[in-house]
Design brief:
The complex is a heterodimer.
Chain A lengths: L3 H34 L4 H14 L1 H26 L7 H18 L5 H30 L3 H24 L41 H17 L1 H12 L1 H6 L4 H17 L1 H10 L10 H11 L4 H24 L6 H32 L1
Helix pairs in contact in A: 1-2, 1-14, 2-3, 2-13, 3-7, 3-10, 3-12, 3-13, 4-5, 4-6, 4-10, 4-11, 4-12, 5-6, 5-10, 5-11, 7-8, 7-13, 8-10, 12-13, 12-14, 13-14
Chain B lengths: L1 H26 L7 H19 L2 H25 L4 H24 L26 H18 L2 H11 L1 H6 L4 H27 L10 H11 L4 H16 L11 H4 L2 H11 L19
Helix pairs in contact in B: 1-5, 1-8, 1-9, 1-10, 2-3, 2-4, 2-8, 2-9, 3-4, 3-8, 5-6, 6-8, 9-10, 9-12
The chains are: A mainly alpha, B mainly alpha.
């Protein structure tokens, strides 16, 4: 028999795991019902979503590639949330980061690689940080809620980068406006084209590259900030109670601006993935909601770095699998977007249910 | 000039519907950023119904019903399951986007747009108005005084505002807080759904993701209009004007793409309080939990 302490630890772990697990199960059950409703066999279609990622090293590397920007946007949401801030401006921040990275690369073509690469990574982070810091400052200085301002700044980022692109950087005669290719010194090459690519079993066209390492390093760094150090303590204090934090001598305004800047920088690092590794250029309107998916990833991962990496992996599987069901079945690939939306709705709903149950039990124990 | 004016009214119509809708939700204290998804779902429901039934007006009814349905989901998740209202809205927007694209394949066999649709007209002599205004635009304009009456003159409006300002006080007076909030959210769904119907039926096509951020512009208009019907009307006309400048304005020193960012910029400026005080309902976004 396990001792009471073990049992309590086990039940606590269970309480952390059951809401996402149940949400996942119910989402796939609803997905199965939808598939059945349009006369396809759910037992054939749903496994297809996971087949490519689990089938080969190359497939799994593609899942990791799709997961990379989601790790970054998920961390971005979680970082701001630690300070009680809701950053739904990841979309705009990653545009700002990607654009500034591309612009830096095109403006300074002669730099040697050891200077060029870190500079471009820094530019991506700085673009995002600036775009995040503005709503942070508006909140700290004028008390304006960050949600509305981050929404507005998403549109401003897409519009402004598009206009700057058209006006100053566009390669002429293109259907979708984009910049010229960035200089070779700034480009990251996919692992598949490096020396170990064949050894890892990757196809030559596999896009996975060093941006994954950047995302994982960011996850470790965010974990360290949350766990240790003064800044993590300040973030949490402000997140739990700004009034108490202020009474305790913490500069709430400064923490707010910094939290939004770091959150924006994490989203801006998506520019490393999109511009330096994947496309080697900035493309108008390139992101289809990566910033918003970050909110889903952070919720699913319970704002914990490890949870976020796992949740991003799950969403990576779903995105990679979307192609598969498009090719091999009559089911539209948008089934995956429906599944992702259902997963968020159910994860948060079940999460709240678990919270009530815990509260009620505590009240019963107290009585 | 008349062209620009009519263009402004047309582009303002879905914004006006959605903005007035958002007003009822937020006046009751519930943030509804699902307006974007409601517009999209309304547009799709109108298109599918109008296409298969052949009646555009039936399409409008379907859009109102679908919008109300999605709003009901928002109320269920955020009021009953107590999920954060922003989170619920983000998820519902995703759901609307995925579901409409998915259903486009099923209903229209295409991933990009629907077949051609008729827009709703007025039967008989009533159709011969001096200027060519879509009937849904007229309805949206009529909805402004109607909303004003409902919000400021009716018993429901007074109670809704009380709930949005101070739910605990409203509760202590015996008002059913959550039920009133539910009505506010449902009303927002119905109105924004009608806005969605205008989007697809008056463009004669449903196009993938055709709401294209209009739900968020409507939210901006709601803030810029200080949560009042007349203010929302003014803001949506201004924002509609900015949007319909495309094609009418060709000045090398004033890029249209920048003019179209004006609504977002103005909203941020307004929130800081440069253009007079602009205060949200006091309890907006905060869930009331009865002990």
């Amino acid at each position: 028999m396990p001792s009471p302490r073990w049992r309590r630890a086990l039940s606590a772990a269970g309480e952390a795991v059951w809401p996402p697990a149940a949400a996942l199960g119910l989402s796939f059950a609803i997905g199965a019902a939808i598939v059945a409703a349009i006369d396809e066999n759910p037992l054939r279609v749903l496994p297809l979503i996971f087949a490519p990622g689990l089938g080969s090293a190359d497939g799994f590397a593609r899942v990791l590639f799709d997961a990379t920007p989601l790790i970054l946007t998920g961390l971005s949401v979680a970082y701001a949330f630690r300070a009680g801030l809701f950053n739904i401006g990841g979309e705009g921040q990653l545009y700002a980061g990607a654009f500034l990275a591309a612009w830096t690369a095109l403006a300074l073509p002669g730099l040697p690689r050891p200077v060029a690469l870190p500079l471009a990574v820094l530019a991506a982070a700085a673009g995002g940080a600036l775009w995040g810091a503005i709503p942070g400052w508006l909140k700290a200085r004028f008390g304006v809620h960050e949600v509305i301002n981050t929404i507005m700044m998403n549109f401003l980022a897409v519009g402004l980068t598009g206009w700057l692109l058209e006006r100053f950087l566009q390669e002429p005669g293109q259907m979708i406006p984009h910049t010229p290719e960035i200089p070779a010194a700034y480009q990251l090459q996919p692992f598949a084209q490096g020396p170990g690519g064949a050894w890892l079993g990757l196809d030559r066209a596999n896009p996975l590259g060093a941006s994954l390492l950047v995302a994982l390093a960011a996850a470790v760094a965010v974990g360290l900030v949350f766990r240790r150090g003064v800044e993590g303590y300040r973030l949490r204090a402000v997140g739990l109670s700004p009034a108490a934090a202020r009474y305790g001598g913490i500069g709430v305004g400064g923490v707010t601006v910094r939290a939004m800047a770091v959150s924006g920088a994490l989203a801006g690092l998506v520019g490393v993935h999109e511009v330096l590794l994947y496309r080697h250029r900035f493309l108008d309107n390139f992101s289809s909601g990566l910033g918003f998916l970050g909110i889903a990833v952070a919720l699913m991962g319970k704002n914990h770095p490890l949870g976020i990496v796992l949740a991003a992996l799950l969403f990576g599987f779903l995105n990679t699998g979307a192609l598969e069901i498009d090719i091999f079945t009559q089911v539209p690939r948008e089934l995956v977007v429906v599944l992702q939306a259902l997963i968020i709705l159910l994860v948060v709903s079940f999460g709240e249910l678990a919270l009530w149950r815990r509260r009620r039990r505590r009240r019963e124990e107290a009585a | 000039m008349i062209g620009l004016l009519l263009g402004t009214l047309r582009t303002a119509t879905p914004l006006l519907f959605a903005g007035l809708g958002g007003m009822f939700s937020e006046r009751g204290g519930v943030v509804n950023i699902a307006l974007e998804g409601i517009l999209l779902v309304g547009a799709f429901a109108a298109a599918a119904t109008a296409y298969y039934s052949g009646s555009p007006w039936l399409g409008v009814v379907a859009a109102v019903a679908a919008g109300t349905g999605l709003a009901a989901l928002h109320a269920l998740v955020s009021l009953r399951f107590r999920v954060d209202q922003i989170v619920s809205g983000v998820a519902l927007n995703m759901l609307a986007m995925g579901a409409t694209e998915f259903l486009m394949w099923i209903f229209f066999g295409s991933g990009s747009n629907s077949p051609r649709l008729d827009s709703p007209g007025l039967p008989g002599a009533a159709g011969r108005l001096p200027v060519e205004l879509p009937p849904l635009t007229l309805l949206a304009l009529l909805a402004v005084p109607a909303s004003s009456w409902l919000l400021f003159r009716s018993r429901f409006g007074l109670r809704l505002r009380a709930v949005g300002e101070h739910p605990e006080a409203a509760d202590s007076l015996g008002l059913p807080v959550h039920r009133l909030q539910l009505y506010g959210v449902l009303l927002s769904g119905a109105l924004a759904g009608a806005g969605g119907a205008f989007l697809s039926l008056n463009a004669h096509y449903f196009v993938k993701n055709m709401s294209a951020g209009r739900g968020f512009i409507a939210l901006a208009a709601l803030i810029f209009g200080k949560w009042r019907p007349a203010g929302v009307l003014g803001a949506t006309l201004l924002f509609g004007f900015a949007e319909s400048l495309q094609g009418h304005l060709d000045l090398p020193w004033l890029p249209v793409r920048m003019v179209q960012l004006l609504p977002y910029l103005l909203t941020m400026v307004a929130l800081v309080g440069v253009i007079g005080r602009c205060r949200a309902p006091a309890a907006v976004g905060r869930l009331f939990v009865k002990d």
